[in-house]
């Protein structure tokens, strides 16, 4: 009996060990490209080109981060300008998308009206339209518009975020009982008042998830920026990173440092808000 | 939600509708102006003579653009590699994403950390990922070549992104790395919706791990799986940046999937009419899968 128990115990620990080995290997493989980016950003110039590739930098060059933020330039434009451009465009497009989608999502969640299902189906459908097809007329239309190129890109990002954000935020509003808004309205709030003072604070996790989503749409975009932003000093970060390749520059350390600077904050944001993001994402696409 | 059906609800409904449209107006304006109008315009352009260097008016030329597209060898090549790209990436993402979500669907120390790791590639901007891919695959100082040569997998450094056949597979690898987290997330959420009582009941009935997987987990996961599969297909058909930024459609057009074909004909060759025609064909394919998706979401079994 004791022996049997013992054998069973070892068997279990072997299974557990295998599971942990599997987990470790998987995590390592998935993270490797990201780790490699960070490692390369810390290597010195000689090390990155030397014949023997080292897995870890011999002397980590932390000062490179400061260098790329203050002095490094791509095609003659300082890297911080690109960060500034990206933040400017994406922050405004995120703000507009979230406000607009929150209003729309609230209407779809709370009101019964003629055309409700048509509207919500249409919003879902626009998510499925190929961006490469839409980009052609949008490009021609926006090119004719007499506004600054950054505003054009901002308009594009705002709108591309809206269908999914509306869908996502509506899922969050659906989970808040309608009796709460009704109570607020009986107490003298207007519709808008009930929405702003009661529902919105409760849907805070949803708003956060939506904000991240809207942010990612703009932050990652290359297609629209590449067509609408011609001059290098207007470029956003993804354009600048790709411009580096066109530049035939070989300063891989610095470009990896730039990549790290713009990626790591996003990853941290994702990790902190993982739960909300997952809830929002799955509410939007699975439950319908 | 809410008050339709009750008497009060019906009395309020016309005022309600006005408020509803007021709330929805900004969404409707944006969606119409930047999504619906452009799509209609693009479809219209596909029947017009739209060579940018020729001045307007753009004459109606019937199906001339479509004829040009369908007659081009390059288009059919793009269709073929798009088919391979979509099939391979979607299958790989689905298998990797769902098996990992099943593997990690248990309590173990460090679980949040592992889940976070699994979604990290998703948070990496495409341009950054593409650059890292280029650096890792570089024939001179790339880590992949270094390890490959060291282990004797190949004798001399290989130019992974410089050879047509290899470049295509490297793009696929990138797409899978970047895209499997979404499947993982969907599946993990799907598994969460399984009440633990089902597992407990099955365990009491003496089911072993394998039986649990086959008889409980997989059947429960199936609806989520089907929906995710369709979404992934719809998105993979339209994928542009993941493919374009790693290899720019080259070398020798080897990674020029349909979206890259459209981009090139519109913005490199300036044949906007033909690009719109090819885009419209792409739209039709995407629409077919979207119909399927919507039907399944509504709970109907597709009638085939």
Notable features of this structure?
heterodimer, A: 288 residues, mainly alpha, two-stranded antiparallel ribbon, flat, B: 304 residues, globular
Taking the sheet with the most strands of chain B, its summary is: none
Radius of gyration of chain B over all CA atoms, rounded: 25 Å
Morphology call of chain B: globular
Residue stretches of chain B low in confidence (pLDDT < 50, at least 5 long) are 1-5
Indicate the overall shape of chain A. flat
Helical fraction of chain B equals over 70%
Structural class of chain A: mainly alpha
- Main sheet of chain A, how many strands, which sense, barrel? 2 strands, antiparallel
Termini separation of chain B: 34 Å
DSSP helical segment count of chain A: 14
The H/E string of chain A reads HHHEEHHHHHHHHHHH
The portion of residues assigned to helices of chain A is over 70%
* Unreliable residue runs of chain A: none
Question: What does this entry show, briefly?
Answer:
Helices cover 78% and strands 1% of the residues of chain A.
Task: Lay out the secondary structure.
The complex is a heterodimer of chains A (288) and B (304).
Chain A: H1 2-42, H2 45-49, H3 63-70, E1 73-74, E2 77-78, H4 79-110, H5 116-126, H6 131-144, H7 149-174, H8 178-186, H9 191-202, H10 204-220, H11 223-228, H12 237-246, H13 252-272, H14 274-285
Antiparallel strand pairs in A: 1-2
Chain B: H1 7-45, H2 64-70, H3 73-103, H4 111-123, H5 126-137, H6 143-151, H7 164-192, H8 196-204, H9 209-238, H10 241-247, H11 258-268, H12 272-297
